[in-house]
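[Help] Beginner question about ligand-bound structures

Sorry if this is basic. My supervisor gave me a protein sequence and a SMILES string for flavin-adenine dinucleotide and asked me to "get the holo structure". I don't really know what that means in practice or what format the answer should be in. Inputs are pasted below exactly as I got them.
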Amino acid sequence: MRIYDLIIIGGGPAGLTAGIYSMRARLDTLLIEKMVIGGQIITTEKIENYPGFPDGVSGVSLIQKMEEQAKIFGLNIESEEIKQLSKENNIFKLTGNQNTFFSKTIIIASGNYPVKLGIQGEEKFRGRGISYCATCDALFYKNKKVIVVGGGDAACEEGLYLTKFADKVYIVHRRDKLRAAKVLQERVFANSKIELLFDCVLERIEGTDFVEKAVIKNIKTKEEKAGNFCRRRCSKEKPASGIDRSRRRSNRSLYGRKIY
Ligand SMILES: Cc1cc2nc3c(=O)[nH]c(=O)nc-3n(C[C@H](O)[C@H](O)[C@H](O)COP(=O)(O)OP(=O)(O)OC[C@H]3O[C@@H](n4cnc5c(N)ncnc54)[C@H](O)[C@@H]3O)c2cc1C
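Answer (accepted):
No worries, everyone starts somewhere. Holo just means with the ligand present. The predicted complex, written as structure tokens, is below.
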């Protein structure tokens, strides 16, 4: 039975970064990825906020370089989905679809994923006018009209941030009042660039290659309105690991983190 010094779950930017550090520390390390190496960032065509790339870089190119760098230091990568974690006699047991792995320490770098609206056009235009992170993508919406969906803290915070770039921000909320903290609500109401659309839902998104049109429906009057927008969604993010951590004890060694 091989017992690694460290197993990293997830082959996105966080997992690969951890892999580079651990190999440089000469730890016997294994990285396990359930899909393709790269994580969420490979779905984006242009990254403009990563230092060292003044002209921007595609997600795929950046990840190829990260993987190459990790492999130069000898990082082993296995393809497997980890389904369960447990700890016995101070050793972690990681149960995958097909194999079981053992390690003294683990890093969970399994990322997270945004809650989807599940409406027509959402998947098609992800990264093509649909974003899930204002600090990542707000610059793409410079001088444009943007829809933010939601009425909680995230929607208000992201909407306010977007007003630094966009001409106009519509906050579309299915209820008749916001649920965000009062202080955020006050800032939203005071911002002349924000227009609130209460009792409304985003019905569908249309376009050819990029978002061109968004259809908003008033759930009380059933009236539909279409406009030319770039849309983003604000929602809580869910952990993406799908790992049953119920048997894991609290004295885990390391933890995965978001990179931005
Ligand atoms: C369209 C889009 C554009 C973006 N643009 C930018 C940008 O311009 N700038 C920026 O800074 N950020 C951007 N982001 C955010 C960036 O992609 C994330 O912050 C980053 O990918 C997080 O890295 P991570 O390694 O923590 O997680 P992830 O990238 O989510 O990687 C986690 C990995 O873990 C794997 N995994 C999960 N569970 C298991 C399991 N049980 N077993 C094995 N493997 C598992 C997943 O398959 C995945 O490959 C963008 C995101 C998207 C979706």
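A couple of things worth pointing out: Helices lie at 13-24, 59-72, 134-137, 153-162, 182-190. The radius of gyration is 21 Å. Feel free to follow up in the thread.
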